[in-house]
Write a structure and sequence with these properties.
about 425 residues, alpha/beta, Alpha-Beta Plaits, 2 domains, four-stranded antiparallel sheet, 12 helices
């Protein structure tokens, strides 16, 4: 389906205002290295929320704060029964993260609503610029969007602790009642769609010399805990050929799994990001090695095959070194495919602005991945310098930010006007 071209081709975001907002927000939780530290529900995150609410009110929009702490600015349609088109991302960050991740999408959404309101554009949908709670997973990854999609469970709240502090207490301190977070669920029939602008967090756009990435899908992610069990012994007196070294088996697994995924699943990703060795002394052969392992792939069938292969490699490595082995699935998020109509709308908006595009798979998780289960979703990426993200060095040229925001503006207009 081809969306109608916007009857407002002259509209553009206000770059100076947008930049001023961006620079102000970057000071909340700013780190000496030039990044930001706004962990979800932290004092810095709450300051950012208050700042965002002030900006919403100053723009003459309606502030909406749901039971899961998701914070929105709403531009209402003249039709009170209209559906809502959401646009947004997140304001929280990873520890010592970058200024652009998430914040760019939230501020671009706010700026789009301001431009539409200032130009008296009438649309048949409500527009909502939304910041989702705890996208980054300080407590529960994609918590806010899970709440909206009706995917939260009691375990999502009860089982979470950070630095021995319970999630429920953190929610309460932030003014969020843990007993009512489930009320944030939205009926799918009330929503027209969701758009998200985000930095790419990779180098594909830059390598291809393209302006806008049109996201076609988001990879599925599965996290496992793999534990290798050996036997502790004196590191000096135990024969090298008679050791049951748990860490050696784990290390062999990491190398073999990495190579196998590269060779057999070119679009797949394997990572081992956490290793705990017991007893953890330099003069004791490790009796236990506990690994946190992650797999990612956009194709569900290939993802399943890849996971089975990785588990089999782990079992073989354990057997080779006389070890016992146990695997436990910790988390799973299925792959998501973006809505074809929204993808076409983003492509068309970029063409209207004479910007080049590239279809991309996202290897990072996003709120779109969750919301796509209940509503049509689309994402657009803008280039990241050197592909660096989750790092104070994260950077995107402001020209690219504005190109992305203007593409978002016209994609939203085109899509919203087609809702008549």
């Amino acid at each position: 389906m081809t969306e109608p071209s916007s009857p407002y081709p002259q509209l553009r975001v206000n770059s100076d205002r947008f930049r001023a907002d961006f620079d102000e927000l970057a000071q909340i939780g700013a780190t000496p290295e030039g990044g930001v530290n706004r962990l979800a529900l932290s004092p810095e995150d709450l300051l950012a929320r208050a700042w965002f609410a002030d900006k919403i009110e100053a723009a003459g929009l309606t502030v909406r704060d749901d039971d899961a702490g998701n914070l929105s600015g709403v531009l209402r349609s003249r039709d009170p029964a209209a559906k809502t088109l959401m646009i947004g991302s997140h304001l929280d960050s990873v520890p010592n993260g970058g200024r652009f991740d998430g914040a760019t999408g939230v501020l671009a959404a706010l700026e789009c609503l301001r431009v539409i309101k200032e130009n008296n554009v009438t649309l048949p949908v409500h527009l909502e610029a939304i910041s989702f709670t705890d996208d980054e997973g300080c407590w529960r990854s994609l918590f806010g969007s899970r709440a909206v999609a009706g995917l939260l469970t009691e375990d999502d709240i009860e089982d979470r602790r950070v630095d021995n502090a319970p999630f429920r207490a953190a929610l309460t301190r932030a003014g969020i009642d843990p007993r009512t977070v489930f009320r944030a669920e939205r009926p799918p029939s009330s929503l027209a769609g969701y758009f998200e602008l985000h930095i790419e967090q990779g180098e594909r756009l830059a390598r291809a010399d393209k302006d806008i990435g049109v996201v076609v899908g988001i990879v599925g992610r599965t996290t496992y805990r793999f534990t290798f069990y050996g036997q502790a012994a004196h590191s000096g007196t135990t024969d090298m050929y008679r050791r049951r070294d748990a860490l050696r088996g784990a290390a062999l697994f990491i190398v073999r799994a990495h190579d196998a995924v590269r060779e057999k699943y070119g679009d797949g990703v394997f990572n081992c990001g956490g290793v705990v060795v017991k007893p953890g002394a330099f003069n004791i052969i490790p009796s236990e090695a506990d690994l946190l392992v992650e797999c990612r792939h956009v194709n569900a069938r290939l993802m399943s095959e890849m996971e089975m292969m990785i588990v089999q490699i782990a079992r073989e490595c354990a057997a080779t070194h006389g070890l016992n082995f146990n695997s436990e699935q910790v988390a799973h998020v299925p792959a998501a495919h973006m809505d074809e109509r929204i993808m076409a709308t983003i492509e068309q908006a970029a063409q209207q602005l004479n910007l080049s595009t590239l279809n991309l798979t996202s290897y990072a998780g996003h709120d779109s991945q969750i919301l796509s289960r209940i509503v049509p979703c689309g994402m657009l990426f803008i280039p990241s310098i050197d592909g660096i993200s989750h790092n104070p060095r994260e950077f995107t040229h402001w020209e690219n930010v504005i190109q992305g925001a203007n593409t978002l503006l016209h994609a939203v207009l085109n899509y919203a006007l087609a809702e008549t």
